[in-house]
Amino acid sequence: MKKFFYIILTCTLLGSCSPYQKALKGTDIGVKYKEGEKQFEAGKYAKANKLFEQIIPSYRGKPQAEKLTYLHAMASYNLEDWYLASYQFERFVSSYPNSEKVEEASFLGAKSAYMLSPVYSKEQLETKGAIEKLQSFINLYPDSEYLAEANKLVKELDFKLEKKAFDIAKQYNTIAGYTADYNAPIEAIDQFIFNFPGSVFREEALFIKFDSAYKLAINSVSYKKQQRLEDAKTYFNSFKSAYANSEFMVEAEKMNEEIERELENYSTKS
Asked: Is the dihedral of CA 224, 187, 198, 203 positive or negative?
C-alpha cells in the first residue's frame, strides 16, 4: 500500500514539474509561447489556449502576435468553442487583413457562426447572422478553395429558414380551427410563397391555402359565401394546375365537389 502511495506521489510531483506546468506557472512569455505551440501541435488545444490567453496581451504589436492570434483561434475552433472561435477569427481578420491566413480565417469564422445555428424550430437569429457572414465571405473570395463548402452551408441555413417560415404559416391554419379566422393562414401562405417562390413546400402550401379558403367559404355568413366559394374554387384550380398528381389531390377533389354543390345552389336560386 505504501509503495503504491509513493508511486502516485512521484507521478504527481513529476507532473507538477512538467515543461507545461513550469511554463503555465512561470513568468517568461517566450517559454509560454514555445510551450503553447508545442501543445497545439500535439493536439492539446485546451492546454495551448491556457498559455496563449496568458501572453496575448504581452505580444500585442509584436511580430509574433499574428501567429499567436491565429493559433488561439484555431485552438478554440478545434475545441468546438464556436462562439469564441467566431469572435477570434473575426478579430484576426480585422487585425491582420494582409495576412496569408486571412482567407482561411474568414471562412472558419463564418463556419463557426454556422455551427451556432440552432434547430429550425428555435429562434433563428444565429442562422441569419451565419448566412450574412458566409455570404460576405463568398462575395469577398469568389475563387476560394472554400467556396463550394461555403455555398453548401448557406444552402443548408437557407433551408432552415424556409422550413421555419413554412411551419409558422402552417400553424396559422391549425390555429384557425379554434379561432375560425381562415383569412390569417391564407395571408401567411401568400407571404411564404412570395418569400420562397421555389420552395420544396410549395405544393403543401398551396393545398393549405385552398383548405383555408374552403373552410372560410363553407363556414361563411350567407352574404359573403358565394364570393368566398368562388375564391376557393380559383385556389383549387391553381393547385390542380400546378400539382395534378399531388398526394393531397384526393382530399382536395372532395372539398371542391362540396364547393361545386354549394355554388350550384346559388345558380339555381338565380
From this structure: negative
DSSP label at residue 122? S
SS3 205: helix
Is pTM beyond 0.70? Reply is yes
| Segments in the chain below pLDDT 50 | 1, 4-7, 9, 11, 13-15
- Phi/psi for 88 (5° steps) reads -70, -40
pLDDT at residue 13, as a whole number = 47
Location of C-alpha cell 455555398: 151
Q: How many CB atoms lie within 10 A of CB 35?
A: 22
Mean of the per-residue pLDDT values of the chain: 92
Q: What is the 3-state secondary structure (H, E, C) of 148-202?
A: HHHHHHHHHHHHHHHHHHHHHHHHHHHHHHHHCCCHHHHHHHHHHHHHCCCCCCH
Let me know if 188 is exposed, middle or buried by CB neighbors in 10 A (0-12, 13-18, 19+): buried
Residue 179: predicted pLDDT: 83
Taking a C-beta distance cutoff of 8 angstroms, is the pair 40, 71 a contact?
Answer: yes
Write down the pLDDT at residue 16: 53
How far from the centroid of its chain's Cα atoms is residue 105's Cα? Answer: 20
Q: Where do we find the cell 428555435? A: 122
φ, ψ for residue 45, nearest 5 deg: -70, -35
> 232 is written with which cell numbers?
376557393
pLDDT at residue 270 in the model: 55
